[in-house]
Design brief:
Length: 285
């Protein structure tokens, strides 16, 4: 009885130190599940046998070994982590490679639908291949929506004033397409409607582009915010140091392109000044 009493006292101290016995209450499986504490080996050893079944006190060294707690066993998703030589319970096996990032059985990420430029009517300037190449350059939020022809020199005449009155909403983006008399195609994208103004306006989404001969896109450099500016006599896109990335006169007969700080662009046409053969402006309704 003396040995049993000392063992029980030692067990009580162990439980209190582990934080699992409070006010005389013994830990239960429900309180231990998911805990980092693991019952000492006496729970499965000879101490669990009643005295009338021939129990004998073990050697003192064995008692100290039995009272030492085993390493903690953490339950993760109901499957205990086994020792190196222990088999996993049925249903908890880890298929080869599934526990690592990038395993072949992982569900594939959904492929994003490529951005497309959708025109409500055919363009007299852009070819089908040009449309396919230009679409992914637009902001994703503006793709998959049908763009409408707001202004065309072939339909509405050559007038910058008429272009401003095309009826575009103030928050509608604008796609400006130009073909010159040397059959070069180029233009500009503005995140806001092209309008007459007393100063520059627009956002960093504005860019210039050219199909001379392959598509090249010139985006905002961050050096200045000279995006778009125009009145009835002149329309300018990009600028700095007296040079404009693209400019058009009030009659929409002549225009020009120079390298500018806003976009660090190349000359969009083959020459710094060009004559306009056709011009279109597209927008969202």
């Amino acid at each position: 009885m003396g040995c049993t009493h000392s063992l029980n006292a030692g067990l009580a101290e162990t439980l209190v130190a582990s934080g699992h016995q409070d006010r005389g209450t013994s830990p239960t499986p429900s309180t231990l599940r998911g805990s980092a504490w693991c019952p000492p080996r006496w729970a499965w050893g000879p101490f669990s046998q009643p005295p009338d079944r021939g129990w004998e006190a073990p050697h003192a060294g064995r008692v100290r070994e039995l009272l030492l707690p085993r390493p903690a066993v953490i339950l993760i998703s109901g499957c205990p982590q086994p020792d190196q030589d222990e088999d996993l319970p049925m249903g908890c096996e880890d298929p080869a490679g599934e526990g690592q990032r990038g395993w072949e059985g992982a569900p594939a990420a959904a492929e994003e639908e490529p951005s497309r430029l959708v025109l409500s009517t055919p363009s007299s300037i852009l070819r089908d291949r040009d449309i396919e190449e230009l679409g992914p350059q637009l902001p994703p939020r503006l793709t998959q929506q049908p763009w409408h022809l707001l202004y065309s020199t072939g339909r509405d005449g050559f007038s910058l004033r008429t272009l401003y009155r095309s009826g575009a909403r103030p928050d509608s983006p604008a796609l400006l397409l130009i073909r010159d008399t040397e059959a070069q195609t180029f233009g500009a994208f503005s995140a806001t409607a092209i309008r007459s103004s007393s100063g520059f306006y627009g956002t960093g989404e504005t860019f210039l582009f050219s199909f001379c001969p392959e598509l090249k896109v010139f985006r905002w450099t961050g050096r200045n915010d000279f995006f778009v500016n125009g009145d009835v006599n002149l329309l300018m896109v990009g600028g700095g140091s007296g040079r404009f990335g693209l400019w058009l006169d009030g009659d929409l007969h002549r225009g020009g392109s120079q390298p500018c700080e806003t976009f660090d662009n190349e000359i969009l046409s083959q020459r710094e000044e060009f004559c306009i053969q056709n011009l279109e402006m597209w927008g969202l309704p």
